[in-house]
């Protein structure tokens, strides 16, 4: 099993850093297939693949994918560069479902600059996706919407779920703007009618996932309510076809169902409930009560929301502890777990609460449930951990960089550490500095 996964990592990495677009496409297909594996074992396996790709050759894969895909600049043909960038968006939408990958990306700059990087990632990706959404024409190639709108929105939702630093960066960027001002166009009838049904659904799903993260996270809940979260939810309800809610097998995955869970979660908090009343949520959501009820037909959701917002004492008798658990699990339902990096480990995912797995002190990527598993994994990990910092094209290593690389190569112990990341940076600057195709 370990050998098979190691070969998969090598194969996938080689394809993803290739300048050949055909090879790159094969790499994406391999990655997508791996992430579609069913069951808990499949999720753990895809998690290990993502973690190993994050560590591969000191971050070579992530540098290519997330640091603006510098390989694009090697293409004299604009169409090839365009397609490569689109492919990078798709790959990043998969890889950012791993918290380990997200942390690695935010740590790819100078220590202490993660928040600045988060600001630039959010600002660049949201701006670029919005520009492309406005330029999209009805009947355009389905892949254009998937590449340049759906995938970036999925990335933003994934990264926000995984990182408080990123959410802090979002708040910085939106200091003088609202969420709806930045994201509302993606939920407009004007835009969604340009997309095929699957892409329109994916847009609503990505934004409902982002909204759920903001509503469920204590650091953003009240801020999001003041920044237009309710208008985002109302737009998702408005653009969700009522007939679609009849598919019982997919009901828990519906964007409208997620919006219901968000409202229920907000009503659990007195400060959030007061915010809902202050923003006149009852009047805002009343036109959508049929969809609210249709998305959760087993409960009198609308009656519960209406009573609470009118100040009456109300309980949702059928809402059990299991339903609350479903709400929490939906928040991370599309993410892969953090796992021990040794492929034969049977400890399962890192606990959501309690003691976390330790990190390799050098690369900060590899995770271990025990020192013994770290020792076993070191034989394979050391060649990537010792690869040294990845450089952007044109960067020249300094004497300090070379010295640090030698010192790192000598650290064969890979000491476990649970502290703040430190060590050599992968490159100077943030993703926004090199993100391609900014018009």
UniProtKB/TrEMBL annotation:
Classification via InterPro entries: Znf_MYND
Region of interest: Disordered: 387-408
Entry-linked SUPFAM superfamilies: HIT/MYND zinc finger-like (SSF144232)
Presence of keyword Repressor: no
Keyword hit for Zinc-finger: yes
Domain named MYND-type: residues: 345-385
Superkingdom of the source species: Eukaryota
Protein name: MYND-type domain-containing protein
The entry's keywords: Metal-binding, Zinc, Zinc-finger
A Pfam family recorded for this sequence: zf-MYND
Alphabetized GO MF terms: zinc ion binding
């Amino acid at each position: 099993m370990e050998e098979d996964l190691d070969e998969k990592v090598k194969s996938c990495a080689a394809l993803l850093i290739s300048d050949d677009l055909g090879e790159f496409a094969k790499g994406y297909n391999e990655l997508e297939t791996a992430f579609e594996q069913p069951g808990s074992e499949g999720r753990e396996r895809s998690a290990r693949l993502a973690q190993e790709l994050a560590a591969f050759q000191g971050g070579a894969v992530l540098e290519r994918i997330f640091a603006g895909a510098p390989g694009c600049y090697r293409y004299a043909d604009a169409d090839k560069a365009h397609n490569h960038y689109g492919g990078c968006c798709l790959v990043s939408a998969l890889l950012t479902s791993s918290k380990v990958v997200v942390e690695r990306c935010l740590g790819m700059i100078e220590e202490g600059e993660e928040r600045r990087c988060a600001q630039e990632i959010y600002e660049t990706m949201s701006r670029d996706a919005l520009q492309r959404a406005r330029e999209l024409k009805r009947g355009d190639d389905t892949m254009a919407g998937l590449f340049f709108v759906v995938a970036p929105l999925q990335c933003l939702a994934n990264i926000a779920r995984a990182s408080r630093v990123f959410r802090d960066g979002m708040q910085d960027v939106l200091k003088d703007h609202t969420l709806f001002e930045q994201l509302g166009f993606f939920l407009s009838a004007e835009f969604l009618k340009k997309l095929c049904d699957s892409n329109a659904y994916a847009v609503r799903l990505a934004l409902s996932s982002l909204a759920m993260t903001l509503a469920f996270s204590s650091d953003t809940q009240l801020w999001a309510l003041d920044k237009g979260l309710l208008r985002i939810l109302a737009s998702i309800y408005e653009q969700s076809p009522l007939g679609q809610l009849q598919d019982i097998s997919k009901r828990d995955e519906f964007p409208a169902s997620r919006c219901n869970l968000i409202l229920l979660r907000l009503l659990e908090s007195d400060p959030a409930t007061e915010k809902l009343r202050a923003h006149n949520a009852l009047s805002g959501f009343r036109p959508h009560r049929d969809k609210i009820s249709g998305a959760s037909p087993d409960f009198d959701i609308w009656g519960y929301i209406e009573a609470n917002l009118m100040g009456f004492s109300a309980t949702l008798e059928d809402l059990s502890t299991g339903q609350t658990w479903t709400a929490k699990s939906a928040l991370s339902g599309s993410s892969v777990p953090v796992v021990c990096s040794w492929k034969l480990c049977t400890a399962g995912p890192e606990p959501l609460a309690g003691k976390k797995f330790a990190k390799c002190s050098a690369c900060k990527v590899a995770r271990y449930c025990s020192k013994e598993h770290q020792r076993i994994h070191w034989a394979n990990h050391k060649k990537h951990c010792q690869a040294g910092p990845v450089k952007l094209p044109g960067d020249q290593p300094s004497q300090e960089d070379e010295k640090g690389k030698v010192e790192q190569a000598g650290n064969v112990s890979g000491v476990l550490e649970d502290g703040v990341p430190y060590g050599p940076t992968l490159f100077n600057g943030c993703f926004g500095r090199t993100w391609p195709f900014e018009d």
